[in-house]
Amino acid sequence: MTASHKDLLKAVEAGKVTVAVIGMGYVGLPLSLAATDAGFKVLGMDINEPRVKGLRAGKSPIRTVKDGEVAEAN
């Protein structure tokens, strides 16, 4: 393992990296919430503007994800 790999691993272990997730659907949204719960800063992206507006308002577009989970992660 190179020094840069070790530095990256240390940053990940310390939660000092930003995770980007493209698509806030039935896979991306739960993944984003799991990364948030693990202590990472998360940047979620989606081209569906109504979905993005709803997420910003704390509303989940997914039945299996509660609004409160989304609101807490904002």
Write a structural description.
This protein is α+β, with helices and mostly antiparallel strands and 74 residues long. Helices cover 49% and strands 14% of the residues. It is built from 4 helices and 2 strands; from the N terminus they run H-E-H-E-H-H. The chain has helices at residues 3-13, 28-37, 49-56, 67-73, and strands at 18-22, 41-45. A two-stranded parallel sheet has the order 1-2. Helix 2 links the parallel strand 1 and strand 2. The longest helix has 11 residues, at 3-13. The termini are far apart. The model has no long low-confidence stretch (mean pLDDT 93).
Throw out a few tags for this protein.
74 residues; two-stranded parallel ribbon; 4 helices
How much helix, percentage-wise, in residues? 40-55%
Distance between the termini: 36 Å
Counting DSSP H or I runs of 4 or more residues, the number of helices is 4
Mean pLDDT: 93
| Biggest sheet statistics | 2 strands, parallel
Multimeric organization:
single chain
List the helices and strands and how they pair.
Layout: H1 3-13, E1 18-22, H2 28-37, E2 41-45, H3 49-56, H4 67-73
